[in-house]
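Ops channel
N.P.: pipeline sanity check, posting one input/output pair.
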């Protein structure tokens, strides 16, 4: 039984452990789940991640309940099963999908998962980032599939639905070290239909445009969508010769577009000033792929998220090392 102490980490430690347990068939017990968070323990989105992983390997579990700070996961044989789940809150559907997406590297049949909840909520990857950045990076290395938002879900009610589908594919080793030159920037905004009269999407685009200073082509697009709760989300996507990076912001009512635009562009500029190949948001999410298929990934810095995630993969016998260099850290397996 692999023992994991989650006291210093968040939900990413649990998601990584679930993925690797499902794939390797190794049992684990995690204590102090999300111990670094004020609201420690399993929340709705974490419960759904456990349940999805359980279905994919017919696992036996213990202590899987709301607010539980300890679980035991004993996987059976890996199997392919269409998954459906409803978080029931605005919990992030994309964080739940982070658990099952890496498992598809081991499947030899088509796969699908549909999850309802929050598609664009704070403290998690937005649907724009998931579709335009993460899946694009994976496609560069053999991933074949699609991610679609059937309905957008903002905080506090959620009510959105996202669908992930994959076809049988062979994942290549990750080669994300030299990003090359910046070729294009794309600005995308999505907002609730109820905000169209206020021109929130157009205002957000204008704020981003006014903060941005680049000498490459800049594309812009926006759309208004149906949603239960009001909100908007924006993404600055930077396309390089050999990689893509993204910087998003979920705007809640009462926030100024200028403030979010400034933060988004500041994150982009910090990234440009480094030698990193991927943004910090996707950096820790790629560690589990490194554990499964190997390769190299250049990130800007060794964050707490990255370090705790590295400790989890090592528990499963899939050590990912790192090398500090000027302006970057190279993760390598």
């Amino acid at each position: 039984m692999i023992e994991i102490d989650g006291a210093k980490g968040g939900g990413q430690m649990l998601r990584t452990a679930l993925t690797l347990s499902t794939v390797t068939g190794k049992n684990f017990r995690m204590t102090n789940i999300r111990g670094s968070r004020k609201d420690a323990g399993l929340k709705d989105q974490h419960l759904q991640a456990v349940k999805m992983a359980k279905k994919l390997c017919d696992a036996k579990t213990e202590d899987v309940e709301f607010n539980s700070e300890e679980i035991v996961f004993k996987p059976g044989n890996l199997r392919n099963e269409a998954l459906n789940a409803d978080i029931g809150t605005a919990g992030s559907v994309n964080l739940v999908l982070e658990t099952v997406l890496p498992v598809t590297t081991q499947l030899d049949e088509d796969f699908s998962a549909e999850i309802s909840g929050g598609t664009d909520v704070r403290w998690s990857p937005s649907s724009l980032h998931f579709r335009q950045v993460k899946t694009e990076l994976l496609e560069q290395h053999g991933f074949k599939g699609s991610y679609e938002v059937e309905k957008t879900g903002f905080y506090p009610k959620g009510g959105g639905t996202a669908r992930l589908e994959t076809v049988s594919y062979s994942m290549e080793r990750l080669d994300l070290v030299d990003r090359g030159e910046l070729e294009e920037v794309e600005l995308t905004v999505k907002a609730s239909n109820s905000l169209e009269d206020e021109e929130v999407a157009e205002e957000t685009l204008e704020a981003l445009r006014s903060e941005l200073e680049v000498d490459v082509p800049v594309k812009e697009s926006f759309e208004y969508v149906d949603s239960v709760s009001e909100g908007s989300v924006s993404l600055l996507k930077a396309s390089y010769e050999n990689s893509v990076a993204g910087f998003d912001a979920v705007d809640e009512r009462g926030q100024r577009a200028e403030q979010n635009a400034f933060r988004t562009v500041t994150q982009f500029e910090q990234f440009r000033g480094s030698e990193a190949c991927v943004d910090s948001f996707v950096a820790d999410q790629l560690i589990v792929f490194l554990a499964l298929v190997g390769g190299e990934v250049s990130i800007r810095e060794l964050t707490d998220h990255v370090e705790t995630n590295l400790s989890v993969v090592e528990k499963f016998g899939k050590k990912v090392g790192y090398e500090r260099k000027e302006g970057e850290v190279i993760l390598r397996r």
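N.P.: looks fine end to end. The chain has three domains: 1-79, 89-172, 182-272.
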